[in-house]
# Entry
Amino acid sequence: MSNLERDPAEVLAVGTAVAEPAPATGGDVEILEPREVPLGGPRAMNVRRTLPQRRRSLIGGWCFIDHYGPDDVAATGGMRVPPHPHTGLQTVSWLFEGEIEHRDSAGSHALVRPGELNLMTAGHGISHSEVSTPEARVLHGVQLWVALPAASREVAPFFEHHVPVASVLGDATVRTFVGELAGSGTAATVFSPLVGAEIVAPAGASLRIPLDTAFEHGVLVDAGAVAVAGTAVPVAHLAYLAPGRDAVEVVVGDDGPARLVLLGGEPLGEQIVMWWNFIGRDHDDIVAARAHWQAEVIGGVDPHGRFGTVEGYDGAALPAPELPTVRLKPRG
# Structure
């Protein structure tokens, strides 16, 4: 989905330096708290955002984690995100409940359904819309972004749909939507080594999840009482694990089942700038992308230019917010 904040902050994200992995037993669990972000107007959906933040801005190439729901569509109005642009990233849409209609300027028209991956690569520039369907009564899932490495950030935009085959890990069910884990995976296109998986485990389960020692990882708790490597992780919080671990122990409490989203990747080792729905390498990249969007699409100068046109959406595209009056300054 779009970042619909009316006054989005500029974020300078510096990837963890690529280094030799630490010993497999080393490193503490870092707990990242979510912040509530309203998307849109008075009846807006709220999302819980754990990445980016001042304490940490990247986990491998993963640079944006929005966790939402379960939301009653009758109360919130559901999701209606007009056409909006992206650059320098991939959007990874993964639902637990609900149904969302996706359209983009690459000509794609698809439904986002539970257990099915919709992956959109923005590259040089794309625009898309997302609208919950009339059949959706509840919306519940995660919207994720992956920063493209510098060598790939200008690729031509494209869209993919994949359905991972579930696998069993101990008492848990694993659906790996990016990369491979525990025998589940997809052929989703990535431009840096990554893994992304939904893990559902029953009450009382004790899991040993295998990890790539070259990856840093995040474990997002969607539901359940969960301890990661001996540390309790509240619902909607993210547990960060530094590179060097070959596995992590996860224990689920006795009160009910748990759902986790495991994200990981090799440290990007690059600096990125994020603002609104753009990722660049410096302030000028963001200024240029916004100028193209405002002139070509919002201003109507060239609707088929850098960001193209979303065919089939009934409504106007989303104007970009005003840029800050000062250039980007590193922080955090």
Q: What stands out?
A: The longest helix spans residues 283-298. The first strand starts at residue 11 and ends at 14.
